[in-house]
Amino acid sequence: EKGGYPHYMLKEIMEQPRVLFETYTGLASSRELENAAKLLSNAEKIFVTGAGTSYHAGLVFAYYMARIAKRPVIPFISSEYLAYRDMDHSNSVLVAISQSGETIDTLQAVRSFKSSGGRVIAVSNVIGSTIPREADVTVYTRAGPEIGVAATKTFLTQVLALTGMALTLAQYNGSMTQNEYRKAMDTLKNAGHAASAGIDRSIRAVELLASSLRSKGNIYVLGRGLGVALAYEAALKIKEVSYIHAEAYPAGESKHGPIALVEDGFPVIFVGVPPREELHEKLQSNVMEMKARGASTIVVGVSGYDDLKGVDFYIDVGNYDEILAPYAVVPPFQLLAYKLAVMLNRDPDKPRNLAKTVTVE
Ligand code: F6R
């Protein structure tokens, strides 16, 4: 049942090329994105929430909503819903992301918004689960069952569904022409190909990288723009299955504190995403400031970051635009977390202290 793989986590990483295509075709043949975008276009305020990996998908959504649909979105971690409780939400829409559809914190956020007049769009993988049942509209990710405790395929399928939602809204509100929208959706159809290339182009390099990181006590994962959310997700995956302390933050923050920890050999992984014109120069200075403290610098990125100076190890996942980059960039990090766990004799499918679905507050 593990499809010939030693662990569910690896099986689920490797099936991303296929499930992403299923997510896409499922959405293309339903009205879910249109129904969600309709609600969003009438909203005065838009919030997005989730826990853990689902929250990271929410950050990707907030990024695309601002950049593509020109709509600001307020992201919050679902256990922090109390901050927004005593407000009139009659013109608000909450996008609630939950793979299982059962996470109690996310469910509480949904109930709280509904009771103050808000409308809810659920993004979930489980048909008929509690959060979709209580939502006004549900967008299903159609990733199939995920057995490994760590979310892998469900993350990228959430990202795909949320990107589709942002694009559909952008077309409704005129931020994108019909033609631009068609082109972007056609691009999104290739998410599975990007995932497959990301896996193929990194699988050997990740093995090398994992052997050099296995003895480390700390890892920083830094990004800018879209890369921030992907860095958070990479760090979460590394820590939960390998138990190596990994921390992510926006690369520009180094000098505001975290660089104090960096000494000889401290590993810093940079996430390189489009738009290169905007980010390359800034990332270059972030690499240099780390290098100057003796950090061991690694870049996992789309093509075009290979000329960065001061980089010790580079994984080029291929040439992808802003829409496709996540599908190529994320799998190498999932594989890295998996490899580290296996090398350190930790069970990647059942990390200690964790449950797949958290139903107590
Ligand atoms: C991390 C992980 C968790 C879940 C979180 C939310 O790999 O699996 O962080 O993402 O518990 O779960 P759902 O999406 O089911 O609400």
TrEMBL record:
Catalytic activity: D-fructose 6-phosphate + L-glutamine = D-glucosamine 6-phosphate + L-glutamate
Tree of life domain: Archaea
Entry annotated with the keyword Transferase: yes
Enzyme class: transferase
Tagged with keyword Cytoplasm: yes
Described function: Catalyzes the first step in hexosamine metabolism, converting fructose-6P into glucosamine-6P using glutamine as a nitrogen source.
Protein name: Glutamine--fructose-6-phosphate aminotransferase [isomerizing]
Protein species of origin: Pyrodictium abyssi
Biological classification of the source: Archaea, Thermoproteota, Thermoprotei, Desulfurococcales, Pyrodictiaceae
Full protein segment contained here: 253 to 613 of 613
